[in-house]
């Protein structure tokens, strides 16, 4: 927990000195339909929307058009301190398509990496909304989350991310009355790295000791960061992918002094690179299941599992092949412990609460985040190449052996100036069914989970198996089986283990429940 003095400094502002709302551009959230499904396959459409994060928005004077923040620098006359800046400056509405390259139609959402307009915009971060003023809150314990995605247009160094953050439903408005913008304008972001590049935290400007980044024309870091639990369901480009729980042992979402925020609470070495799909040019379904110790929505998070469905074929997450790590294909406490030991790392995952801490965040509710970004700090080498760059690539956890059948991304690459300026790279999220114009589907599934000894064997994930063309050979009608049909042309087993029934989960697969 952070010292009290550090927390008070950004919260004791008068109501008059509040983070303001601009009126130059109307804020109209793009509509996005998603679904809630029951275990028997019955699905209900939800009329949601998405909102752009506050950090991307035009920040200007409340009475005119003067920028409070230009490039990566604050206007010192308007923003001499956190509360004065909050009083002087307003977050404005967004032109989602024209300025930020965000397009939503029905069930589809498409994010452009670079959008050229009056100014050039790079990347975006959006949140799923339940209403005009509150984020949708997902409680994931003993639930499934399913989405379809195509990252074939995302090359080396880029990241199309879909993850959950332990944000407040209202963006922090009720906790911090100086925040007048709230979720409607995308405020309240936090993650396990305690990001210090946020312009506003808890309704006050993060201007103290702000330092412009030398290798980014738009970013900098302030004295404070915003910390919370984070579950990376999907971080990927056309070469590599990972899913990672990032527990954070901070008790709340306070602003953190730089000396603390500089020590991230995330655990990148616990990332679980995933089984890749059979072709980089085709859409595929990703299904993540968050299992609990007692198979209820109030139990302790014990395992995170992942499968894929592509072209009617079920693809199991690939198995580990790392000395010292048991062979299996899911995230458990034992996997993370063994992986840390095998890689010679400190077990920060355990230090910050492990799966239990992550599960507690799921119980309270987490916000869905969707983004496309590049990594000007490490050039995304941790995802798709060798990292650290000065380490022996043959050591566990350094070289991307999950890319062994393909050319890996360059180990040493320049910051992505060429990609930013020369290519409009897109991150489209595509249909659950390819023959209809629906391009987005979420599933929160009330799943009847049989006893863990039967459907959740002690297995652990592997580095990505690159572009496998068929399901793993071990999909058999035994105690480990969870899939009993992969749609048309399915040649795998159709029987389930004793005590479970083959139940339809949509057009492309059925599962043993």
Automatic annotation (TrEMBL):
Residues 1-18 form the signal peptide. The keyword ATP-binding does not apply. Its EC number is 3.2.1.-. One of its GO terms (biological process) is cellulose catabolic process. GO terms for molecular function: cellulose 1,4-beta-cellobiosidase activity; cellulose binding. InterPro entries: CBD (IPR000254), CBD_sf (IPR035971), ConA-like_dom_sf (IPR013320), Glyco_hydro_7 (IPR001722), Glyco_hydro_7_sf (IPR037019). It holds the Pfam family CBM_1. This is Glucanase.
